[in-house]
Amino acid sequence: MLRIGIDAGGTFTDFVVLDDGGRLTTFKLRSNRANPAEVILTGIARAAANAPAAEVLHGSTVATNALLERKGARTAFLTTAGFEDLLAIGRQNRAALYDLTPQPTTPLIPSERCFGIAERVLADGTIAVSPSPADLERLRRQLAEKGVESIAICFLHAYQVPDNEQAVGRALHGLCHLSLSSEIAAEFREYERASTAAVNAYVGPLMRRYLEELAARSPYPVLIMQSNGGVLSAHEAGQHAVRTVLSGPAGGVVGAFETATAGGFPKVLGFDMGGTSTDVSLCDGKPRETVEARIDGMPIRVPMLDIHTVGAGGGSIARVDEGGLLRVGPESAGSTPGPACYGTGDLPTVTDAHVVLGRIAADQLVGGDMTLDTARAKAALARLGQSLGMDPAQAAAGVIRIANANMERAIRAVSIERGYDPRDFALLAFGGCGGLHACEMAAELGIVTVLVPENAGVLSALGMLLAPRVRDYAAGVLGHSDLDARFLPLEARARAENPKARLTRFVDLRYVGQSYELTIPWTGPDAIHVFHSVHERTYGYANPTREVEAVTIRLRATSAITKPPLTRSQPYRKGQAQPRQVWVDGASRQIPAWRREQLSSRPVPGPALVLDYGATTLVPSAWSMRIDSTGTLVLRRRGIMKNSA
Length: 645
Description:
Blueprint: E1 2-8, E2 12-18, E3 24-30, H1 36-48, E4 54-59, H2 62-68, E5 75-80, H3 86-89, E6 114-117, E7 120-121, E8 127-129, H4 133-146, E9 150-154, H5 163-171, E10 177-180, H6 181-184, H7 190-217, E11 222-225, E12 231-233, H8 234-239, H9 247-262, E13 267-273, E14 278-284, E15 289-290, E16 293-295, E17 298-300, E18 304-305, E19 307-310, E20 316-320, E21 326-332, H10 350-356, H11 374-388, H12 392-414, E22 426-430, H13 434-445, E23 449-452, H14 459-466, E24 469-476, H15 483-497, E25 502-511, E26 518-521, H16 527-539, E27 548-559, E28 578-584, E29 587-595, E30 604-605, E31 608-612, E32 615-619, E33 623-627, E34 633-637
Parallel strand pairs: 1-4, 4-11, 5-6, 5-9, 9-10, 13-22, 22-23, 29-31
Antiparallel strand pairs: 1-2, 2-3, 7-8, 11-12, 13-14, 14-19, 15-18, 16-17, 20-21, 23-34, 24-27, 25-26, 25-27, 28-29, 30-33, 31-32, 33-34
Helix pairs in contact: 2-7, 9-14, 10-11, 10-12, 11-12, 12-13
């Protein structure tokens, strides 16, 4: 059966097609933010060519865009009476501690659509007050008058006893889209649980409509990439849309880890630089996960891959601020109007800087399918340079340095700030622009190995073909000691939904008195020893004599898939590099430009360019390059003895 991986990015939508013989083909289409489904369907038709059977695996940005742009459904919030301001108050934390004029985050749901219900579950799980039928009927009329499209429900202690939430859900059934916190995030801490349910309710109707349209018009079944690195059905994604807010980037993490591991590099920092943003991640034998993600300032309490995103991509706009300093991003030119070199925009971007520096030629983008307007790019950088007292090339080099600094901070956030030394990892670069920045950034971070996969320009879409089917379950267990018994109901539910899935147990542990937890694989009491060592690596200390308590248990149900072989698909073809005038190592010089298929396992010294479909790699003079058995371009800093992987 044909399998089609799709990553809908801000500038391009990527397609990777796996046929019955295990062969991969790739292509890109320009994204359409106004109608993403149309681009997806066009690509499916091109990829499948009326194949009798196919499966579509899709990384969707619908939930992400709706959340970031605040264009979600008209949502109401129902909670225990007296807690109507829960979403507005939050944790009362200050994100910018020394900002004298902080701007509060506007809640997704305004106060006039937040309702309190006379109900109460006590901390020990006792149902003290149940919602009355009269109150529920009155509430139903109020919600109908408000014209709400979706409802988030979060009651105190519902993670332990969900009966009152379920009773309200039954009373409001059929009114609109419902999100119960006990179903979305059955975990301790009412604010994080409420926020997660609110986000799910806010983006759920849009996601459901989008998937229904896609399912109705696609001749093949559609699976959706989750933020945790697994896929789920379109129906499940419509019900649990909050699990897809990092859908596309999660595909990139899976693709990065699988390709790196196939080449013998299990410790990698993923560096995905696309057109709109850059996503970085860390894999230490496996992708790192978190349940404490925040998207646009809002906590989301579901398992996600630990991905740090910054507004630095090929389309990031360069400008001079009020103080005369050069800034790059986070604003992006997107796909429309796009960078100046696309022929419709006028503002200078990172991509335009690379064009001016000779790193991207007019006929190079997307394998030559798209011709760039180099004169327009030079004009945009000339205007920027005039504001800085520089010529276009100097201004372009400055844009690249600023973009590198922004992305280096993101890599430090997922490594040093998590207790990892980036020098112990290889940097795996992908996305359209990743290879153009990777070596320069690696040198600044002390990293000596850079990997650029064969399908670097479409690796997120490839990752979706490599992702297993995954479903996560959780239950609050604060105050309970027999964790094995508490796992049994979750396992029974998981086996009922997918009898063949492999079940893996995890538990959130902390020292008694702490406010935050670490997620540890649960293998029995021995997991406590693992907790101490992870605590030491993360925070710099551990106290084995101190009492440890469990807060939440987690269960992951994983259904394995047959993965495509990750071997070199482009056979070696002997040929000569083409000379090109390129700005590298602080000066403009003539260097060779190689096609990837012209390189072998024999090391070749830099400086050089390596050209691929949808991606370009810059190799500075201090680096050498070779192709390994998986088709990955392996770059090493010469004269450095330390092995980074």
